[in-house]
Fold this protein.
Amino acid sequence: MKLEINDLKAIRFFEGFTSEQLKTTLNMSSIREFKVKEILFEQYDELSEVYILLQGSLSLGISLAKEKRIHLGTIEEGQLFSWSAVFPPYISTAWVMALTPAKVISIDAKKLNTEIEKDCDFGFKAMSKIAQTISHRLSDTRFQLMNQMML
Amino acid sequence: MSAGGNIYKPLKAKLVEVIDESPLIKTFVLIPEKEFSFGTGQFIELSVDGIGEAPFTPSSSPHVKDKLEVTVMKTGYVTEIMHNLKPGAYMGIRGPYGRGYPVEVFHGKEVLILGGGCGLAPIRSLLYALEHIKDNLDKVVLCYGSKTPSDCIYKPLFSRLNSIEKFEAYRTVDKAEEGWNESVGVVTTLLNKVKVNLGNSLAVVCGPPIMMKFGTIRLLEMGYRDDQIYLSMEKNMSCGLGKCGHCMMGEFFVCKDGPVFTYNELRNTPDIWK
């Protein structure tokens, strides 16, 4: 399956991007497919790609000592993940595994960072959306933590 | 509508069925001795003779007058006694009280509903009311979260909603169990997959205080205005008449001025999420 500009337009993350900026993003992106139970990346892996889930369902979690995997939640279609690929030290803070056959948009993080530095408008939009993703993850984690404390 | 025009005297109702919804939650199906009307989102005081009463929002359709369903979570003395009742027992109903959902305002709109835990009870009644006017609605989306799949109430409701034109329903749990193949995570994560037309959308939030707080914050982040968000506040309502002061929240009596408020009305009220 070839990634088209319309695939990007349909994703909330790219709302507000100009056609030119979408074309730029398309040029640094591809589609990757994963089978059920396939690990997209492990916690502490060095990351070089930012992902957006196109189809399917993914599980996100953290690992504790003795290889114990804690499942924190599912990633929904249209959601961005593996944002650690954009920020030094580019190390993943969680693992992600496919719960169903999954298709993701893979964006080359180095090329993305270069574009962010080169084009301020593109950079502001991309960073705002990535910051929003991180903010939601933080807020959801607080919510989850408070739920646990109420148990 | 209480018995004999006395606002304190309960109307007798026969318990005809008890439905186990989850380990702590049961739905009581009651046949009142005369027709009982309520607006969706309004609440009643449900009593057991000689024991006491507690406030609940009916979970049944406001269009059904001869039967009432009330979903009760076991949380204390009165609700524990209620949970031990068997079909054939009699209960008392006082009410309805307060201000429910303004269904007439929902005409022509998209309605996004965020529910958690036992907060699905008032929402189910609202969903019945919205189904009744579905030709005049744009879309209804329900996002519901519970702690585990076993804690999820009204299990058949979700497939039924997804089979109704213009309705979408999503579920998530904090902790999955074997065989669960839907979302895992807090209910706000479901909002990532919901597409809304903000200019024509209204949101409804009902659930535990923590869920209502984080849900409302996320809706505001999504771009909902304060007056587009309806909150169903379930405080310690006691008399139901704005007299005893148990449910006071800032300048409001939740039992009389609510329990449904817009966030715009409550935003400056201290401790609204307590």
The radius of gyration of chain B is 18 Å. The first helix of chain B runs from residue 77 to 83.
